[in-house]
Amino acid sequence: MHRRDVQRHCEGHDAPAAQASPSGASPRYCAVVVGRAPDTGGQSPVLGQACSTESREDALAHADGTRRSSGLRAPLLVLEQYRDTNYRDGVINSLYGTDGPCGNGVTYTRINPANVALHVPSMKGYNNCNKAVLTDLAGLRKNIDLPAPTLGLLYNDMTDIVDVSNG
What is the reported pLDDT for 25? Predict the structure, then answer.
């Protein structure tokens, strides 16, 4: 699949992030629940996603509603992507993993939809997720430590793919 096809494919799955809420307010909090990245590479399977004008907790409850009602273990927060450098102006996207903390072979990979990729200049990792490999819109890759108050010249507001892991 070519990069443009992957982007269109992912944007289609992320449509709720771009839609306004019934009240007309645009969503401020978005949550994505994913499984671990396949050992052979590729994106983590998206198990649920939602945005909310209320809170991160509300977004997660909607993103993970089906899993939670089935009694499965609650997902762990593994990554927060911020709207501005130095973690200012709030979180634009929260990534939750269902296979435990990073480490022991658990890595989470996310292709950011355009409404996130073009607006993330800083990020923090949680639950042993202290490293990330960023891929910019041109396909260049960069290893960083988390937390990262700035992603650097080519990656601020240009991070297309994030691989989160434990060193």
Answer: 53
